[in-house]
Amino acid sequence: MNKSKLNVAIIGLGTVGSGVLRLLNKQKNNIKNRTGIELRVVAISAKNTTKKRSVDISPFRWIASPLNIAKDPNVDVIVELIGDMDNTARKVIREAINNGKHVVTANKSLLAKEGSIYEELAREKGVFLRYEAAVAGGIPIIKVLQDSLIVNKISKLYGVINGTCNFILTKMESDGREYSDVFSEAQRLGYVESDPRLDIGGIDSAHKLALLSCLAFGTALNFKAVKTEGIDHISIEDIQEADLIGYKIKLLATAEYSKNKLTQEVSPKLIRKGSPIAQVNGSTNIIAIEGEEIGTTVFSGPGAGMGPTASSVVSDLVAIASRKSKSTFLTGDKTNSSNRNEKVSKKSSFYLRFVLKDKPGVIARLSGKLSNCGISINQMKQKPLPKQRATLIMITHKALEESLKKALIDIKKLKICEQKPVAIEIQEI
Ligand SMILES: NC(=O)c1ccc[n+]([C@@H]2O[C@H](COP(=O)([O-])OP(=O)(O)OC[C@H]3O[C@@H](n4cnc5c(N)ncnc54)[C@H](OP(=O)(O)O)[C@@H]3O)[C@@H](O)[C@H]2O)c1
Predict the structure, then answer these.
(1) DSSP 148-210
(2) Which of these, 231, 90, 82, lies nearest to 166 by C-alpha position?
(3) Phi, psi of 317 (to 5 degrees)
(4) What does the pLDDT average to over 403-419?
(5) If you placed Cys at 17, which of 13, 146, 248, 399 could pair as Cys (CB 3.0 to 4.6 Å)?
(6) Do 121 and 94 contact (CB within 8 A), yes or no?
């Protein structure tokens, strides 16, 4: 590979792929002037040959088979922007690396599950695998963890890393609308993945968190160990009640590494309104990192979209051409005994919402079950509902999550709940 020239093939010409073509075209001279590097697009591919694209693809060589591109001797680097809906991306990445090509991808889903395999293969073949766009769109968080913070012992990272969920929760709050209504709007606007569970079920955040965890702590990639809960059970009432006591509800991704134990969790949390995390609205992402030397450092910016994601992809190309690239960190330290995801017992306060049959003695029975599990109540509010039902809102004193789970199982057995209770941890961050 001539250092000053990089022959690039782009596979996938959707939102991100078109953005990369557009950006390379717009910034070609600027990149050359500033870095001395010429990025040349020598092949493109997508699924549908006749589809109208948002960029002019006529100057580029279209190759129908992505696998043929991965074997093309004229190509130095493959930019995989297909996604994880079938086996194509997996085959393309493997084939490209096996043929001595560098790979840039934004495919967080595939990387979270199999990134360590591709990393090992890339090392073996002496090529680079880069994926800045896979986490938090335009925020250069991968480089920060691989380079800038490398001398820091990182103990915790947390943040909001799914723009769709944050858009829905923010919109529910600002417009006073129910989840289902705002979810439909997000779908209409094209913000929701074709499989909505990826976004609203917290899985997309879990993919990204798994990648960030192993980069931050040097542990092995372990997506399956991320405890994951989504936002589809959150009602406007929960958001309004949280607001009354000074909190917002956010889908928080948290990874913590302490005493050789790693915990990874994605779930809705009540976050105090003054916290920077609570102030991130719409599709913006935010990630806070707690390191030994840096204290807490916060990164915020656009988490997705054509421009920000393409900017990260092109920065990876420049890094490869400059041979500044590190190999990835996805295999983690195999000798590290802490690679397992461990349960750490910690105490927190919880917000609880029950819809109960409005009968005498019901609240006493429910409170009794909480008390039996060592959970005491800090605040309680009852609101009547039609059809002889009532909503009961509670804020608990600090208690173990395991104790709350046990209490909720016992409460279920009482058969006094009209719907599944909502329990959200209150996080003081
Ligand atoms: N969109 C974002 O903001 C964003 C942010 C971060 C990361 N990402 C990641 O970036 C990747 C691309 O996302 P996107 O939003 O650009 O997706 P997209 O708009 O759905 O585009 C996917 C592209 O892949 C092509 N494709 C699908 N199956 C193919 C196959 N079997 N062979 C060849 N091409 C195929 C499609 O071809 P046709 O156009 O012909 O249908 C389309 O051009 C995904 O991994 C995604 O998770 C996206």
Answers:
(1) ITTTS-EEEEEEE--HHHHHHHHHHHHHT--HHHHHHHHHHTT-S-SSTHHHHTSHHHHHHHH
(2) 231
(3) -65, -45
(4) 97
(5) 13
(6) yes
Provide the annotated active-site residues: 208
**Continuous segment of H or E residues that includes residue 261:** strand 261-272
Q: Where are the alpha helices (DSSP H) in 72-107?
A: 88-98
- The superfamily (CATH) of domain 5-134 is NAD(P)-binding Rossmann-like Domain (3.40.50.720)
Our answer on whether the CB atom of 89 is closer than 6 Å to any ligand 1 atom is no
Instruction: Quote the distance between the C-alpha of residue 120 and its chain's center.
Output: 23
Q: Is the pLDDT of residue 169 over 60?
A: yes
Token digits of residue 162: 């799914």
pLDDT in tens, 85-115: 889 999 999 999 999 999 999 999 999 999 9
Average pLDDT over residues 233-258: 97
What are the CA-CA distances from residue 238 to residues 270, 272, 366 (Å)?
10, 14, 20
Largest CA distance in the chain: 81
160 vs 133: CA distance, rounded Å? 16
Q: Which CATH architecture has domain 143-301?
A: 2-Layer Sandwich (3.30)
Q: What is the DSSP letter of 246?
A: T
User: Would you state the CATH architecture of domain 347-427?
Assistant: 2-Layer Sandwich (3.30)
In three-state form (DSSP H/G/I as H, E/B as E, the rest C), the secondary structure along 113-137 is HHHHHHHHHHHHHCCCEECHHHCCC
Does residue 10 line the site of ligand 1, with CB under 6 A? no
Domain boundaries along the sequence of the chain: 5-134, 143-301, 347-427
Q: Of ligand 1's atoms, which has the minimum distance to the CA of residue 88?
A: 31
DSSP 300-344: EEE-SSHHHHHHHHHHHHHHHHTT-PPP--TT--TT-GGGSB---
Task: Tell me the average pLDDT across 293-312.
Answer: 94
Per-chain mean pLDDT for the chain: 93
Mean pLDDT of 227-233: 97
Cβ of residue 81 lying under 6 Å from some atom of ligand 1: yes
Residue-level pLDDT at 337 = 46
Mean pLDDT across the stretch 51-65?
95
Ligand 1 and 305: CB distance under 6 A: yes
CA distance 321 to 24: 14
- Provide the CA 25 distance to its chain's centre, in angstroms: 29
Residue of 44, 82, 203 with the most ligand 1 atoms within 8 Å of its CB, for mutation: 82
Q: Is the pLDDT of residue 327 over 90?
A: no
Q: How far apart are CA 404 and CA 375, in angstroms?
A: 7
Q: What is the pLDDT of residue 193?
A: 85
